[in-house]
Amino acid sequence: MIEKLFKLTANKTSVKTEVIAGVTTFMTMAYILFLNPNILSSTGMDKGAVFFATAVAAGIITITMGLVANFPIALAPGMGLNAFFATVALQGVGMKWEVALGAVFISGVIFMLLTVTKIRQILVVAVPGSLKVAITVGIGLFITVIGLKLSEIMVASASVIPPTLAKMQETGGKAGLMFFEWNIGFGSLKNPSMLLCLIGLGITAALMALRIKGSLLIGIFVTTIIGIPMGVTQIANGFSPIALPNFSNLAVGALDIKGALNMGIWTVVFTFTFVELFDTFGTLVGTANKAGLIDKEGKSPKIGKAMLVDAFGVSFGAFMGTSTVTAYVESAAGISEGGRTGLTAVTTGILFLCALILAPLATLIPNAATAPALIIVGLLMVSSIKDIDFEDFTEGFPAFMTFIMMPFTYSIANGVAAGIIFYTLLKVLTGKYKQVHWMMYLLFVLVVVRYIFLTEA
After folding, report:
1. Which residues form the domain of 91?
2. pLDDT tens-place string over residues 378-415
3. Which helix (H) or strand (E) segment is 90 a member of?
4. How many independent structural domains does the chain possess?
Protein backbone atom coordinates (compact mmCIF):
# COMPACT_ATOMS: atom_id res chain seq x y z
CA MET A 1 0.00 0.00 0.00
CA ILE A 2 2.83 2.41 0.87
CA GLU A 3 4.48 1.63 -2.47
CA LYS A 4 1.26 2.38 -4.36
CA LEU A 5 0.55 5.57 -2.41
CA PHE A 6 3.99 7.16 -2.61
CA LYS A 7 5.44 5.44 -5.73
CA LEU A 8 8.72 4.71 -3.96
CA THR A 9 10.22 2.51 -6.70
CA ALA A 10 9.46 5.04 -9.42
CA ASN A 11 11.21 7.70 -7.34
CA LYS A 12 14.19 5.41 -6.68
CA THR A 13 13.82 5.42 -2.90
CA SER A 14 12.76 3.13 -0.04
CA VAL A 15 10.72 3.25 3.17
CA LYS A 16 13.90 3.31 5.29
CA THR A 17 15.40 6.17 3.31
CA GLU A 18 12.17 8.20 3.44
CA VAL A 19 11.73 7.71 7.20
CA ILE A 20 15.33 8.74 7.90
CA ALA A 21 14.83 11.78 5.68
CA GLY A 22 11.64 12.69 7.56
CA VAL A 23 13.36 12.45 10.94
CA THR A 24 16.22 14.62 9.64
CA THR A 25 13.81 17.30 8.43
CA PHE A 26 12.04 17.30 11.80
CA MET A 27 15.31 17.67 13.70
CA THR A 28 16.33 20.70 11.61
CA MET A 29 13.03 22.57 12.04
CA ALA A 30 11.75 21.43 15.46
CA TYR A 31 13.17 24.64 16.92
CA ILE A 32 9.99 26.39 15.73
CA LEU A 33 8.07 24.51 18.44
CA PHE A 34 9.91 26.57 21.05
CA LEU A 35 10.62 29.78 19.14
CA ASN A 36 7.05 30.39 18.03
CA PRO A 37 5.52 30.41 21.55
CA ASN A 38 8.20 32.83 22.74
CA ILE A 39 7.60 35.21 19.84
CA LEU A 40 3.79 35.14 19.88
CA SER A 41 3.53 35.34 23.67
CA SER A 42 4.40 39.06 23.35
CA THR A 43 0.87 39.53 22.01
CA GLY A 44 -0.68 38.14 25.17
CA MET A 45 -1.19 34.65 23.73
CA ASP A 46 -0.64 31.69 26.06
CA LYS A 47 2.66 29.89 25.39
CA GLY A 48 1.12 26.47 25.88
CA ALA A 49 -1.69 27.29 23.45
CA VAL A 50 0.77 28.49 20.81
CA PHE A 51 2.90 25.37 21.26
CA PHE A 52 -0.21 23.21 20.72
CA ALA A 53 -1.27 25.18 17.65
CA THR A 54 2.26 25.06 16.21
CA ALA A 55 2.62 21.30 16.64
CA VAL A 56 -0.86 20.43 15.37
CA ALA A 57 -0.84 22.82 12.42
CA ALA A 58 2.67 21.75 11.36
CA GLY A 59 1.83 18.08 11.84
CA ILE A 60 -1.49 17.96 10.00
CA ILE A 61 -0.54 20.22 7.08
CA THR A 62 2.81 18.46 6.58
CA ILE A 63 1.06 15.08 6.53
CA THR A 64 -1.48 16.53 4.08
CA MET A 65 1.37 17.72 1.86
CA GLY A 66 2.75 14.20 1.79
CA LEU A 67 -0.55 12.47 1.10
CA VAL A 68 -2.07 14.93 -1.39
CA ALA A 69 0.98 16.24 -3.28
CA ASN A 70 3.42 13.36 -2.57
CA PHE A 71 6.03 16.05 -1.97
CA PRO A 72 8.92 15.79 0.57
CA ILE A 73 8.18 19.26 1.94
CA ALA A 74 7.40 20.10 5.59
CA LEU A 75 5.38 23.12 6.73
CA ALA A 76 5.11 25.06 9.99
CA PRO A 77 4.48 28.63 11.20
CA GLY A 78 7.01 30.68 9.24
CA MET A 79 9.83 32.74 10.66
CA GLY A 80 9.44 36.38 9.74
CA LEU A 81 5.70 36.14 9.35
CA ASN A 82 5.37 35.21 13.03
CA ALA A 83 7.54 38.22 13.86
CA PHE A 84 5.31 40.44 11.74
CA PHE A 85 2.27 38.94 13.46
CA ALA A 86 3.75 39.75 16.87
CA THR A 87 4.50 43.30 15.74
CA VAL A 88 0.98 44.15 14.58
CA ALA A 89 -0.56 42.43 17.60
CA LEU A 90 1.95 43.74 20.17
CA GLN A 91 0.32 43.53 23.58
CA GLY A 92 -1.05 46.86 24.73
CA VAL A 93 -0.36 48.84 21.54
CA GLY A 94 -1.46 46.85 18.50
CA MET A 95 -4.65 45.14 17.46
CA LYS A 96 -5.85 42.17 19.50
CA TRP A 97 -4.19 38.88 18.62
CA GLU A 98 -7.60 37.40 17.82
CA VAL A 99 -8.02 40.04 15.12
CA ALA A 100 -4.51 39.36 13.80
CA LEU A 101 -5.43 35.66 13.52
CA GLY A 102 -8.50 36.75 11.57
CA ALA A 103 -6.24 38.66 9.19
CA VAL A 104 -4.07 35.56 8.68
CA PHE A 105 -7.17 33.46 7.99
CA ILE A 106 -8.37 35.96 5.38
CA SER A 107 -4.93 36.00 3.75
CA GLY A 108 -5.14 32.19 3.51
CA VAL A 109 -8.49 32.36 1.73
CA ILE A 110 -7.07 34.96 -0.69
CA PHE A 111 -4.06 32.72 -1.17
CA MET A 112 -6.25 29.77 -2.11
CA LEU A 113 -8.15 31.91 -4.61
CA LEU A 114 -4.91 33.20 -6.13
CA THR A 115 -3.68 29.62 -6.46
CA VAL A 116 -6.84 28.21 -8.03
CA THR A 117 -7.17 31.12 -10.49
CA LYS A 118 -3.46 30.93 -11.46
CA ILE A 119 -2.96 34.60 -10.48
CA ARG A 120 -0.40 33.38 -7.95
CA GLN A 121 1.78 32.10 -10.75
CA ILE A 122 1.54 35.45 -12.58
CA LEU A 123 2.58 37.38 -9.47
CA VAL A 124 5.55 35.10 -8.93
CA VAL A 125 6.75 35.79 -12.47
CA ALA A 126 5.94 39.53 -12.25
CA VAL A 127 8.08 40.41 -9.23
CA PRO A 128 11.78 40.48 -10.20
CA GLY A 129 14.28 38.12 -8.64
CA SER A 130 16.19 40.94 -6.94
CA LEU A 131 13.11 41.96 -4.94
CA LYS A 132 12.28 38.37 -4.03
CA VAL A 133 15.77 37.94 -2.62
CA ALA A 134 15.60 41.34 -0.91
CA ILE A 135 12.38 40.35 0.86
CA THR A 136 14.14 37.28 2.26
CA VAL A 137 17.14 39.38 3.34
CA GLY A 138 14.90 41.99 4.96
CA ILE A 139 12.97 39.40 6.92
CA GLY A 140 16.31 37.96 8.07
CA LEU A 141 17.38 41.37 9.41
CA PHE A 142 13.96 41.81 11.00
CA ILE A 143 14.27 38.47 12.79
CA THR A 144 17.81 39.31 13.95
CA VAL A 145 16.58 42.54 15.56
CA ILE A 146 13.89 40.58 17.41
CA GLY A 147 16.51 38.07 18.58
CA LEU A 148 18.76 40.86 19.84
CA LYS A 149 15.84 42.43 21.70
CA LEU A 150 14.70 39.15 23.27
CA SER A 151 18.27 38.49 24.44
CA GLU A 152 18.55 42.05 25.81
CA ILE A 153 21.82 42.46 23.91
CA MET A 154 20.04 45.35 22.26
CA VAL A 155 18.05 47.45 24.70
CA ALA A 156 15.35 49.16 22.69
CA SER A 157 12.54 51.19 24.12
CA ALA A 158 10.03 51.59 21.33
CA SER A 159 7.65 54.49 21.65
CA VAL A 160 4.69 53.48 19.54
CA ILE A 161 3.02 56.33 17.73
CA PRO A 162 -0.19 54.91 16.46
CA PRO A 163 -2.30 56.95 14.17
CA THR A 164 -3.07 53.22 14.24
CA LEU A 165 -5.32 52.42 17.19
CA ALA A 166 -6.42 55.94 18.06
CA LYS A 167 -7.16 56.84 14.49
CA MET A 168 -8.79 53.52 13.76
CA GLN A 169 -11.44 54.40 16.27
CA GLU A 170 -11.72 57.99 15.04
CA THR A 171 -11.88 57.14 11.35
CA GLY A 172 -13.86 53.94 11.51
CA GLY A 173 -10.87 51.74 10.73
CA LYS A 174 -9.29 53.67 7.86
CA ALA A 175 -5.85 54.11 9.40
CA GLY A 176 -3.62 51.10 9.58
CA LEU A 177 0.00 52.18 9.78
CA MET A 178 2.01 51.70 12.95
CA PHE A 179 5.00 53.95 13.61
CA PHE A 180 7.80 53.30 16.08
CA GLU A 181 10.28 55.72 17.62
CA TRP A 182 13.27 53.75 18.89
CA ASN A 183 15.83 54.51 21.55
CA ILE A 184 18.48 51.84 21.03
CA GLY A 185 21.42 50.91 23.23
CA PHE A 186 23.71 48.04 24.21
CA GLY A 187 22.75 45.81 27.12
CA SER A 188 24.77 45.02 30.23
CA LEU A 189 26.92 41.94 30.78
CA LYS A 190 25.74 42.09 34.37
CA ASN A 191 22.35 41.04 33.02
CA PRO A 192 22.23 37.22 33.32
CA SER A 193 19.78 36.94 30.42
CA MET A 194 22.14 38.74 28.07
CA LEU A 195 25.12 36.71 29.30
CA LEU A 196 23.22 33.45 28.82
CA CYS A 197 22.25 34.45 25.29
CA LEU A 198 25.89 35.18 24.39
CA ILE A 199 26.91 31.78 25.77
CA GLY A 200 24.10 30.12 23.82
CA LEU A 201 25.02 32.03 20.68
CA GLY A 202 28.59 30.76 20.91
CA ILE A 203 27.45 27.16 21.44
CA THR A 204 24.86 27.22 18.66
CA ALA A 205 27.23 28.93 16.21
CA ALA A 206 29.85 26.26 16.93
CA LEU A 207 27.32 23.49 16.30
CA MET A 208 26.34 25.14 13.01
CA ALA A 209 29.99 25.49 11.98
CA LEU A 210 30.50 21.78 12.69
CA ARG A 211 27.41 21.03 10.52
CA ILE A 212 25.70 19.05 13.27
CA LYS A 213 22.10 18.22 12.39
CA GLY A 214 19.55 19.82 14.64
CA SER A 215 22.05 22.49 15.73
CA LEU A 216 19.39 25.10 16.53
CA LEU A 217 17.30 22.67 18.56
CA ILE A 218 20.32 21.33 20.46
CA GLY A 219 21.47 24.89 21.09
CA ILE A 220 18.10 25.84 22.60
CA PHE A 221 18.11 22.86 24.97
CA VAL A 222 21.76 23.25 26.06
CA THR A 223 21.31 26.99 26.66
CA THR A 224 18.15 26.35 28.68
CA ILE A 225 20.03 23.87 30.90
CA ILE A 226 22.93 26.32 31.41
CA GLY A 227 20.36 28.93 32.39
CA ILE A 228 19.23 26.90 35.43
CA PRO A 229 22.20 27.65 37.71
CA MET A 230 22.27 31.20 36.34
CA GLY A 231 18.73 31.75 37.56
CA VAL A 232 17.39 32.59 34.09
CA THR A 233 15.62 29.28 33.53
CA GLN A 234 12.91 29.07 36.16
CA ILE A 235 11.70 25.57 37.09
CA ALA A 236 8.51 25.32 39.09
CA ASN A 237 8.02 22.72 41.79
CA GLY A 238 6.71 19.44 40.40
CA PHE A 239 7.77 20.31 36.85
CA SER A 240 7.72 17.47 34.31
CA PRO A 241 9.07 17.94 30.76
CA ILE A 242 6.55 15.44 29.41
CA ALA A 243 2.80 15.67 29.88
CA LEU A 244 -0.43 15.35 27.97
CA PRO A 245 -1.52 18.58 26.25
CA ASN A 246 -3.48 21.06 28.38
CA PHE A 247 -6.65 21.90 26.48
CA SER A 248 -7.86 24.61 28.86
CA ASN A 249 -6.19 27.65 27.26
CA LEU A 250 -6.21 26.73 23.58
CA ALA A 251 -6.86 29.41 20.95
CA VAL A 252 -8.56 27.03 18.50
CA GLY A 253 -11.30 28.96 16.70
CA ALA A 254 -10.51 32.16 18.63
CA LEU A 255 -9.76 34.13 15.49
CA ASP A 256 -11.84 37.28 14.94
CA ILE A 257 -12.59 37.50 11.21
CA LYS A 258 -15.30 40.13 11.66
CA GLY A 259 -12.93 42.29 13.70
CA ALA A 260 -10.27 41.98 11.00
CA LEU A 261 -12.72 43.18 8.36
CA ASN A 262 -13.98 46.06 10.50
CA MET A 263 -10.57 47.40 11.52
CA GLY A 264 -9.44 48.21 8.03
CA ILE A 265 -6.27 46.12 8.27
CA TRP A 266 -5.99 45.19 4.64
CA THR A 267 -2.39 46.37 4.71
CA VAL A 268 -1.68 43.56 7.18
CA VAL A 269 -3.60 41.04 5.07
CA PHE A 270 -1.74 42.18 1.95
CA THR A 271 1.63 41.78 3.64
CA PHE A 272 0.88 38.28 4.92
CA THR A 273 -0.29 37.26 1.46
CA PHE A 274 2.53 38.96 -0.47
CA VAL A 275 5.42 37.69 1.62
CA GLU A 276 3.98 34.17 1.85
CA LEU A 277 3.57 34.17 -1.94
CA PHE A 278 7.28 34.43 -2.70
CA ASP A 279 8.53 32.65 0.40
CA THR A 280 6.60 29.51 -0.50
CA PHE A 281 7.37 29.67 -4.20
CA GLY A 282 11.10 29.89 -3.59
CA THR A 283 11.02 27.06 -1.06
CA LEU A 284 8.88 24.74 -3.18
CA VAL A 285 10.79 25.27 -6.41
CA GLY A 286 14.21 25.25 -4.74
CA THR A 287 13.65 22.04 -2.79
CA ALA A 288 11.85 20.34 -5.69
CA ASN A 289 14.80 21.11 -7.93
CA LYS A 290 17.22 19.73 -5.31
CA ALA A 291 15.16 16.53 -5.15
CA GLY A 292 15.17 16.17 -8.93
CA LEU A 293 11.40 16.60 -9.12
CA ILE A 294 11.46 19.37 -11.74
CA ASP A 295 11.93 18.59 -15.45
CA LYS A 296 14.27 20.30 -17.90
CA GLU A 297 11.66 22.98 -18.64
CA GLY A 298 11.45 23.88 -14.96
CA LYS A 299 8.03 22.34 -14.45
CA SER A 300 6.65 19.80 -12.01
CA PRO A 301 3.16 18.26 -11.99
CA LYS A 302 3.30 18.24 -8.18
CA ILE A 303 3.93 21.97 -7.68
CA GLY A 304 0.29 22.94 -8.24
CA LYS A 305 -1.03 20.55 -5.59
CA ALA A 306 1.76 21.53 -3.22
CA MET A 307 0.83 25.22 -3.57
CA LEU A 308 -2.82 24.47 -2.85
CA VAL A 309 -1.98 22.51 0.31
CA ASP A 310 0.30 25.34 1.40
CA ALA A 311 -2.47 27.90 0.86
CA PHE A 312 -4.95 25.82 2.86
CA GLY A 313 -2.37 25.55 5.64
CA VAL A 314 -2.38 29.33 6.15
CA SER A 315 -6.07 29.44 7.09
CA PHE A 316 -5.92 26.15 9.00
CA GLY A 317 -3.02 27.42 11.10
CA ALA A 318 -4.92 30.62 11.92
CA PHE A 319 -7.94 28.56 12.99
CA MET A 320 -5.72 26.48 15.28
CA GLY A 321 -4.29 29.66 16.81
CA THR A 322 -0.93 30.41 15.21
CA SER A 323 0.60 32.72 12.63
CA THR A 324 1.07 31.91 8.93
CA VAL A 325 1.99 28.30 8.14
CA THR A 326 4.39 28.01 5.23
CA ALA A 327 6.81 25.61 3.51
CA TYR A 328 10.19 25.30 5.25
CA VAL A 329 13.51 25.51 3.46
CA GLU A 330 14.85 23.10 6.12
CA SER A 331 13.06 20.42 4.10
CA ALA A 332 16.21 20.43 1.98
CA ALA A 333 17.98 18.65 4.87
CA GLY A 334 15.68 15.65 4.48
CA ILE A 335 16.01 15.73 0.71
CA SER A 336 19.78 15.64 1.13
CA GLU A 337 19.28 12.40 3.08
CA GLY A 338 17.44 10.89 0.10
CA GLY A 339 13.85 11.99 0.68
CA ARG A 340 11.97 12.03 -2.61
CA THR A 341 8.30 11.39 -1.82
CA GLY A 342 5.47 12.37 0.47
CA LEU A 343 6.48 9.63 2.92
CA THR A 344 9.25 11.98 4.08
CA ALA A 345 6.66 14.68 4.82
CA VAL A 346 4.30 12.23 6.52
CA THR A 347 7.12 11.07 8.82
CA THR A 348 7.97 14.67 9.74
CA GLY A 349 4.30 15.48 10.35
CA ILE A 350 3.81 12.53 12.67
CA LEU A 351 6.84 13.60 14.71
CA PHE A 352 5.34 17.09 15.11
CA LEU A 353 2.15 15.55 16.48
CA CYS A 354 4.13 13.30 18.81
CA ALA A 355 5.92 16.39 20.12
CA LEU A 356 2.66 17.54 21.76
CA ILE A 357 3.67 15.74 24.94
CA LEU A 358 6.65 18.12 25.22
CA ALA A 359 4.38 21.14 25.72
CA PRO A 360 5.67 21.87 29.27
CA LEU A 361 9.13 22.53 27.80
CA ALA A 362 7.75 25.41 25.75
CA THR A 363 6.82 27.30 28.90
CA LEU A 364 10.16 26.51 30.55
CA ILE A 365 12.53 27.75 27.84
CA PRO A 366 13.53 31.41 28.41
CA ASN A 367 13.86 34.09 25.73
CA ALA A 368 17.63 34.04 26.22
CA ALA A 369 17.69 30.41 24.99
CA THR A 370 15.66 31.01 21.83
CA ALA A 371 17.25 34.35 20.90
CA PRO A 372 20.49 32.73 19.58
CA ALA A 373 18.42 30.61 17.17
CA LEU A 374 16.62 33.73 15.93
CA ILE A 375 19.90 35.54 15.31
CA ILE A 376 21.34 32.58 13.38
CA VAL A 377 18.16 32.09 11.35
CA GLY A 378 18.53 35.76 10.46
CA LEU A 379 22.02 35.06 9.13
CA LEU A 380 20.79 32.12 7.05
CA MET A 381 18.18 34.35 5.42
CA VAL A 382 20.52 37.32 4.90
CA SER A 383 23.11 35.10 3.20
CA SER A 384 21.04 35.15 0.00
CA ILE A 385 22.04 38.82 -0.47
CA LYS A 386 24.86 37.59 -2.71
CA ASP A 387 22.27 36.85 -5.40
CA ILE A 388 21.38 40.56 -5.80
CA ASP A 389 23.09 42.40 -8.66
CA PHE A 390 24.24 45.62 -7.00
CA GLU A 391 26.23 46.60 -10.10
CA ASP A 392 22.91 47.44 -11.78
CA PHE A 393 21.60 50.40 -9.77
CA THR A 394 18.04 49.82 -11.00
CA GLU A 395 18.19 46.38 -9.39
CA GLY A 396 20.42 47.07 -6.39
CA PHE A 397 18.84 50.23 -5.00
CA PRO A 398 15.23 48.94 -4.90
CA ALA A 399 16.53 45.76 -3.27
CA PHE A 400 18.49 47.82 -0.73
CA MET A 401 15.43 49.91 0.13
CA THR A 402 13.39 46.73 0.51
CA PHE A 403 15.61 45.04 3.07
CA ILE A 404 16.75 48.16 4.91
CA MET A 405 13.23 49.51 5.46
CA MET A 406 12.04 46.34 7.19
CA PRO A 407 14.17 46.48 10.36
CA PHE A 408 14.47 50.28 10.51
CA THR A 409 10.73 50.96 10.20
CA TYR A 410 9.87 47.73 12.02
CA SER A 411 7.56 46.74 9.19
CA ILE A 412 7.87 44.07 6.51
CA ALA A 413 5.06 45.80 4.61
CA ASN A 414 7.03 49.06 4.32
CA GLY A 415 9.99 47.19 2.89
CA VAL A 416 7.95 45.39 0.25
CA ALA A 417 6.21 48.64 -0.70
CA ALA A 418 9.52 50.53 -1.02
CA GLY A 419 10.92 47.86 -3.30
CA ILE A 420 7.92 47.94 -5.62
CA ILE A 421 7.92 51.75 -5.84
CA PHE A 422 11.65 52.26 -6.47
CA TYR A 423 12.02 49.32 -8.87
CA THR A 424 9.17 50.51 -11.08
CA LEU A 425 10.26 54.18 -10.97
CA LEU A 426 13.93 53.54 -11.75
CA LYS A 427 13.18 51.15 -14.60
CA VAL A 428 10.80 53.64 -16.21
CA LEU A 429 13.08 56.67 -15.69
CA THR A 430 16.08 54.84 -17.22
CA GLY A 431 14.11 53.67 -20.25
CA LYS A 432 14.02 50.05 -19.11
CA TYR A 433 10.26 50.00 -18.75
CA LYS A 434 10.02 46.88 -20.91
CA GLN A 435 11.75 44.94 -18.11
CA VAL A 436 8.81 45.70 -15.81
CA HIS A 437 5.96 43.20 -15.85
CA TRP A 438 2.50 44.74 -16.28
CA MET A 439 1.51 43.38 -12.87
CA MET A 440 4.25 45.45 -11.25
CA TYR A 441 2.64 48.64 -12.57
CA LEU A 442 -0.63 47.55 -10.99
CA LEU A 443 1.13 46.82 -7.69
CA PHE A 444 2.84 50.21 -7.90
CA VAL A 445 -0.51 51.99 -8.18
CA LEU A 446 -2.00 49.96 -5.33
CA VAL A 447 0.94 50.72 -3.04
CA VAL A 448 0.89 54.46 -3.80
CA VAL A 449 -2.88 54.64 -3.28
CA ARG A 450 -2.48 52.71 -0.03
CA TYR A 451 -0.04 55.25 1.39
CA ILE A 452 -1.99 58.28 0.18
CA PHE A 453 -5.16 56.84 1.64
CA LEU A 454 -3.57 56.04 4.99
CA THR A 455 -1.82 59.42 5.23
CA GLU A 456 -5.03 61.31 4.60
CA ALA A 457 -6.79 59.14 7.17
Report:
1. 2-456
2. 888 888 899 899 999 999 999 999 999 988 887 777 88
3. none
4. 1
